[in-house]
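pinging the channel bc i need a second pair of eyes. not urgent but kinda urgent?? the chain im working w is below, pasted from the shared doc
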Amino acid sequence: KVWALNLVIPEWFSWFTGMRPLFLPLVWSILMKIGFGELGLRFFTELLPALGTIFLTYYLGKELFDKKIGLIASSIISFNWVFMFYSFRLLTDSPALMFATLSLYFFWARYEKPFIENKKESLFYLCLAVALGVLAFMTRYAVGTVVFGIALYLVLTRNIRLFKTSKPWIALLVGIFVMSPYLITIFRAVAFYQGTGSGAMSRGFAYEVIYKNLPNFLGHFGMI
């Protein structure tokens, strides 16, 4: 709203810009600028991505296994209460999940499964998968594990041969290009968690994450 309606910047504004990636707020501000209200934002950036994720889950499951698995997986996610909870709120979860699932679909169904070493289309789909994975990361930082998973899979399956071809390097450059307008937000996020930025965690990453929260996680793990 601050960007779209030229409102006065509140005191806590820098706190959120340091903690969250800016891709989705940027999309929201553009939509609001051209006349969309809250209902339009919810429909186009939350509900439609959620519905798209259900279909993508089916197609990904079908390509990984078969139609039966695809139907089971898409049915489970369509009735999952956590998925439904985030499908109706202006948060990053639904669009990030859609980008992530789309990235995995193009990587597996269009690049890896029909893989042909010298086929130009395979480079296109690999770059597309990486670009979508980066968009998922720039929508919600934690979903960047998708790009990491793709990279790890390629390293494990191609070994040293991976680094002797141009495809992974080109895909890496495409990923950096897609992410380049938002690199500043990553540095702000690092400053936020290190306790050096405006509105940052008062005691820094070591205290807030390692000392304060890690014992809680280990406690639950030990109990389980």
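so The chain is about 75% helix and 0% strand. and The chain has a mean pLDDT of 84. — does that match what u expected or am i reading it wrong
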